Amino acid sequence: MTDQVSLHAVVLHGTGGVWHARTGDGRVVPVSLSGRVKNASSFKLAVGDNVALEEDTRGGSWRISEILPRRSQLTRREPGAGFGERVLAANVDQVVVVMAAIKPEPHLRMLDRFLAIAEANELLPRVVINKIDLVDEEGTFHRFADYRHAGYTVHLTSVKTGRGMNELRQAMDGFVSVYTGPSGVGKSSLLNAMYPGLNLRVGEISESVQKGRHTTVGGLLHPLPGAAGGYVVDTPGLREVGLWGLPPADLPACFPEFRAYLRECRFADCTHIAEPGCAVRAAVESGQVSRARHESYAKLRGELGEAEEALASYTRRDGRRR
Ligand code: GDP
Ligand code: ZN
Hints:
By secondary structure, the protein is α/β, with parallel strands linked by helices. It has ten helices and 13 strands. It folds into three domains: 4-67, CATH 2.40.50.140; 73-234, Rossmann fold, CATH 3.40.50; 248-321, Probable gtpase engc, domain 3 (Ribonucleotide Reductase Protein R1, domain 1).
């Protein structure tokens, strides 16, 4: 074994057993998963995984000899039959939720949902309001005060004027980021303007990930050009990740501005929807917590309750456990 070279790499994409990984010196090489690792590993390989490679003794081809521990993962819990869990990407650092200031109008319920999904996956959420050139910036700044108050960084950007793009780029450099948001808000435009040469069409690629041959794997990583490194993850979309499987009682903490009040409610199992003596609702009434954010919470909570119901009846019917 002394003639074996080993090196570390990041898994970029893969289909049906053939994976590609990027080594420290920037080469992208095809890699295979050795049967030994497949059996020994407690989890399945996913894009974003850091791996150790060993060169085949004959040279020229690389095998994954070890999957290194993950610092995070973006997980899709299947709502339908099976209730399985699938890792869309490993080692994701942050979720960048992009909305347009206008054209299309910001979809705040969707924003809240994506932020909650990021929180549930313990990923750092970041808010970007793009197309700021089309509106009055000060008005937009105030419009998103609830999000700053909740502790989120809100970037106001314009691909047209370059406004806010240096700061956003600095926040991306060296990190693994997932971009999400409705189509047409400027995700591809932003990424391509910050990283000339990336040539990314976010929507288009996501569709190909969804419908195409990458289906079995769930996502791919694009290395960011430039010395600072970092990656953009293309996944089938956080919409599909959903909050399925999150215990409803874990949802309140996914709204960071609720956290200070959660222990103050009269009932320990308060759902913060209708109970008397609810400190979260009191904070809404006194203006400390945004009513719109609380409404988003209530809506998501309702959905999770329905999902739990469905799971319970499925488990009863099938006599199976998760
Ligand atoms: P995506 O679907 O989120 O990837 O959105 P695109 O990047 O494809 O952008 C959708 C449209 O918005 C395109 O016509 C862009 O030229 C336009 N656009 C993107 N960013 C801006 C911006 O900051 N200001 C203005 N005025 N238009 C923008
Ligand atoms: Zn409460």
